[in-house]
Design goal:
The chain is built from four helices and two strands, in the order ααααββ. It is an all-alpha fold.
């Protein structure tokens, strides 16, 4: 058996070189695929439900991703709001602690005309017969 590659003549090489170059890739690949008999119209019609199913899955995927991103944005917004409310709570708590000190209460009572008693408190005892003893 002879090797065919070694027996190529110059005429055959010229014939190969004279052939038209491949068509440019600018032609629509899908149009070529359908027109040259790659897929028949019946086969394309038969595959249509599967293609529609894949399109539906793609839309569901996109919708799910958008829904997840919206949830993430909402969570971040709520976390920021919780943090701000926490700061407000701490500020209000500190202000209440300051205003409830004895000196601040005395200042507020003084504006109402109530003065702090300088006498120590007295113990009141109640006897069984209903009389008071100081």
């Amino acid at each position: 058996m002879k090797n065919k590659l070694r027996n190529i003549t110059e005429e055959e090489i010229d014939q190969v070189n004279d052939q038209e170059p491949l068509k440019e890739a600018s032609e629509n690949v899908f149009a070529q695929f359908f027109s040259k008999g790659g897929i028949t119209a019946e086969a394309a019609t038969g595959a249509l439900p599967f293609i529609l199913f894949l399109a539906l899955l793609g839309m569901l995927y996109i919708a799910n991703r958008n829904y997840a991103e919206k949830n993430i944005r909402d969570i971040e917004k709520i976390n920021k709001e919780v943090k701000e409310l926490s700061y407000d709570y701490k500020t209000t708590k500190a202000e209440l602690a300051y205003r409830s000190t004895l000196t601040q209460v005395a200042k507020q009572a003084d504006t109402l005309g109530i003065k702090e008693s300088l006498l120590p408190p007295e113990k009141i005892t109640v006897q069984e017969d209903g009389q008071h003893d100081h």
